[in-house]
């Protein structure tokens, strides 16, 4: 199908690039269908709403920027997404004009089921992460009380 | 808003499926136990609001910022 993307204008995406987010994502509850578009040779993807061109997010591979990143996917979340074996994790990046100010949200990763093509932004509980980790400089994670 | 009082150990039921129990009260801190079906997401409000805000701030990244970031990661050699 052809969709309007913010990054590339009109773009043809394949069926297998479309992910369904039954609950939308916080702040964009109405958006339930997104195309996941990998950016070649980068640790980035674009998550583009198929309905609304301006609802576009830059996702990054959290493990590329924070190799020590880890969390346990709660059973009920895995069940909700019907995840059995395959799972993909990306995090939303907040880009700033000053590149050094750009951040990545490790507290609420986007968890995707590449088989059933469902997705959800999950909120980690009792995790030492927050919504704004410096993207270009791995900061030691301080055990705060930001966990959801 | 429905306002009601509960004592330690007492419960409130919402829609048959969600139960809120007051576990303990210590000064101005109340410990609450929540039983809900698996599909019901439960968040601390301030955390949920911070995620909403971060998402809104992240939407529609500027192409120029994206290019600058990718150039930066590729390093000066390319």
Automatic annotation (TrEMBL), chain A:
Q: Which GO terms describe its biological process?
A: bacterial-type flagellum assembly; regulation of translation
Kindly indicate whether the keyword Coiled coil belongs to this entry.
no
Q: Which residues form a coiled coil?
A: none
Arranged from A to Z, the UniProt key words for this protein are:
Bacterial flagellum biogenesis, Cell projection, Chaperone, Cilium, Cytoplasm, Flagellum, Translation regulation
Q: What are the annotated GO cellular component locations?
A: cytoplasm
Q: What is its main location?
A: cytoplasm
Q: Which InterPro entries match?
A: Flagellar_assembly_factor_FliW (IPR003775), Flagellar_assmbl_FliW_dom_sf (IPR024046)
Compartmental location: Cytoplasm
- Which SUPFAM superfamilies would you find in this protein's record? BH3618-like (SSF141457)
The source's superkingdom equals Bacteria
Q: Does the keyword Nucleus apply?
A: no
Which Pfam families does this one have? FliW (PF02623)
Q: Which PANTHER family did the record assign?
A: FLAGELLAR ASSEMBLY FACTOR FLIW
Looking up NCBIfam families in the UniProt record yields:
PRK13285.1-1 (NF009793)
What's this chain's function?
Acts as an anti-CsrA protein, binds CsrA and prevents it from repressing translation of its target genes, one of which is flagellin. Binds to flagellin and participates in the assembly of the flagellum.
Q: How does it assemble?
A: Interacts with translational regulator CsrA and flagellin(s).
- Recorded family membership: Belongs to the FliW family.
Q: What is this protein called?
A: Flagellar assembly factor FliW
Q: Which organism is it from?
A: Paenibacillus sophorae
What does UniProt list as this organism's lineage?
A: Bacteria, Bacillati, Bacillota, Bacilli, Bacillales
Automatic annotation (TrEMBL), chain B:
- GO biological process: any one? negative regulation of translational initiation
**Record carries keyword Secreted:** no
Main localization category: cytoplasm
Region (Disordered) residue spans: 56-78
User: What are the alphabetically sorted keywords of the record?
Assistant: Bacterial flagellum biogenesis, Cytoplasm, Repressor, RNA-binding, Translation regulation
Which InterPro entries does this UniProt record tie to the protein?
CsrA (IPR003751), CsrA_sf (IPR036107)
Q: List localization entries.
A: Cytoplasm
Please give an example of a GO cellular component term from this record.
cytosol
- State the family it belongs to: Belongs to the CsrA/RsmA family.
Q: What does this protein do?
A: A translational regulator that binds mRNA to regulate translation initiation and/or mRNA stability. Usually binds in the 5'-UTR at or near the Shine-Dalgarno sequence preventing ribosome-binding, thus repressing translation. Its main target seems to be the major flagellin gene, while its function is anatagonized by FliW.
Q: Per its record, how is this protein called by name?
A: Translational regulator CsrA
Q: Which organism is it from?
A: Paenibacillus sophorae
- By which gene is this protein encoded? csrA
